[in-house]
Design a protein that fits this description.
InterPro entries: DUF4331 (IPR025566). It comes from Mycobacterium dioxanotrophicus. Pfam families: DUF4331 (PF14224). This is DUF4331 domain-containing protein. The chain has 333 residues and is α+β, with helices and mostly antiparallel strands. It has one domain. The protein has six helices and twelve strands. Helix 4 crosses helix 5. It is globular, with a radius of gyration of 19 Å.
Amino acid sequence: MSNHFTGLSLGPPLGDQRLDLCDLYAFQSPADPARTVLILNANPQADFLHPDAIYRLAIDNNSDLRNDIAFSYVFSEPVDGRQTVDVYLASGDDAESPEAVGERIFGGVEVSFGREPVIARTDAYTFFAGARSDAFFFDFDGIKNLFDIRGGRNFTALHLSGQYPWTGVDSNTEANVCSMVLELPTEQLGANPDIRIWGRCSVRVDGELQHVDRAGHPSVSSFFNTDDTKLEYNASVPIHDRERWMAQFVHLLGHTGGYSDDEAVAAIDAEGILPDMLTFDPSKPARYPNGRVFTDDVIDYRLASLTKGDCPPSGLSPHTDTLQVFPYLGPPH
């Protein structure tokens, strides 16, 4: 992702790429501005997703930081190179359940691993799951030039020193992800324009559901967590984010950008990264931090924020294989 790694060891949750949430997008449909597109990407290997996992998109539409709507994606055990997925819609109190509850709005949808997407439709919803080209662009070697991330240290040791850190090489031009793409009428998100969206991956281990990854603002989990805190962070819920993580976020910004405590809190609040839920007002054009689109350079945005504007832009361009039609992400490489 923006969260293609979790914490500083640069490894996936529980060492399993299938459980790794990569990116979260929210934007108006190019074909119909009255509809919203929500995309949750996982598994940078772009193969099967975990059959014992629940991948979830949750929406708060009344500003209480609790789930009012939840879409849960549950994948079958792969058989002979094929996999299917069920999609559940929960609302109200049911949306707070960590289990896949509510109405099953799609059942047994074929997961696509080839270039032609298998698209499922109802009157209200359009859905796709499968391998697609990754739209996230970043210069990973340049990031390593900026920070000393060896030995499990955190992202506090900046090495700007007046030198241009970027290599000019996009590390993700041939990358794929497994995407869950849902399009729905915007009115179904709720009346409050200040909608908050977040993703979660949970997996059943020894009969118990463990919350192992979460997705909200791009790159927040990657840059603000240490190896000591990532497990707790990924298991936590947004309603507790400010009380639990504000001090850690403020401390990091003091190191990376020389922020005072008050300046750091103001910067965090201006972007709205605590709670770590992607804010989207559908009445305004989607552009991060209002939703997120494929052309948003979220790494440049994040590093400018971390360094209080001292980090120069990478100069990379968005990928050109994205589509104006569903499922919007390009065919896999």
